[in-house]
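User: I'm writing a tutorial on reading structure tokens. Could you give me a worked example: one chain, its sequence, then its tokens, then a sentence or two explaining what the tokens reveal?
Assistant: Sure. Here is the example chain.
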Amino acid sequence: MDLTYTAEQEEFRAGLRSWLGDVLPKLPPRPDPRDWPGRRAYDAGWQRMLYDAGYAGLHWPVDAGGRGATPVQHLIFLEETEKAGAPYVGANFVGLLHAGPTIAAEGTDEQRRRWLPPVLRGDEVWCQGFSEPGAGSDLASLRTRAVRDGDAYVVTGSKIWTSHAEVADWCELLVRTDPQAPKHRGISWLAMPMDAPGVTVRPLRTLAGSTEFAEMFLDEVRVPVANRVGAENDGWRVTMVTLSFERGTAFVGEVVACRRVLGEVARAAKANGSWDDPALRRRLGRLAAEFSVLWRLTQWNVSEAERSLRAGGTGVPGTGGSVFKLRYSHARQELYDTAADVLGPLAQDAGHPWTAERLSSLSYTIAAGTSQIQKNIVAERILGLPKG
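And here are its predicted structure tokens:
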């Protein structure tokens, strides 16, 4: 394992920095974070700029519309775009970081041709229909049913915490196609059009005031069998591919952002006198060490993915992503709790960006699998401990 960058990788970094320096000053103002239709249009515009410049789907295979870049180049891309203050993927999060990579890895040639180019161009937005009211942490307990009727599945049930459903064109949907099978073996992964008859979306307002999540109700929605990714009843394995991307690389840019915010918090502490508190300085120092380790862990995970590719593997992030996700979600909360202490009474201002991020950070120990789920994965698949 070598975590240093090669001359070729540094050349790629320099080219990216130059491009970012040219285009970012020309971007229009960002919309209100609570305006999801406005955010979709803004994010789609940024995605189109990336696409036209050859930076969309950077690490996706060339035959899937990507550039075929290495995982390390993708890491550099995430690092440099965050450092430069470029827009985050935003409304395109699920399509670019979950559904797209999953279809690229598991979809048929026809499915790749149909769904991947619009994602890369920013033309189509995806949402995630995994969790249900009774199947969140224990995702395999999902009850939304899909019954085969000719060349379509008839889907009935409900989802919750459906990310970006308010503005989505497609949904990566988990359904139960064999209710008699063991719960991990009777699931299928479908691509469902959000404008299909029978789909009802009800946005949920979060503590931070955003409607990023929604309830979704499915009343005999017909989804073509051709929209199934992977074999029937093999959806749990396909889902593990999706979640590996989510835990392995989807939060990389956010680690860079947290390191930047940590520096801002330290400067604010020095400016308002709270830096004189030795306990606060110890917290900041420990967080600095924590995020440095998380960044190294990210590099290690990406290095392993690249090694897998060179050996003819899939390049899908491994279970090391669970270690990262487990620790990152807690470190993020600790960062913004510390920021609130530095802000003092200003932390009650809901309009302050650190306050909004603090409220949002509460969801991170649940998103992409709860911390308890991550601990189970680490215990069983990395440490080899027996199941309890």
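What the tokens reveal: The longest helix spans residues 278-310. The chain has eleven helices and eight strands.
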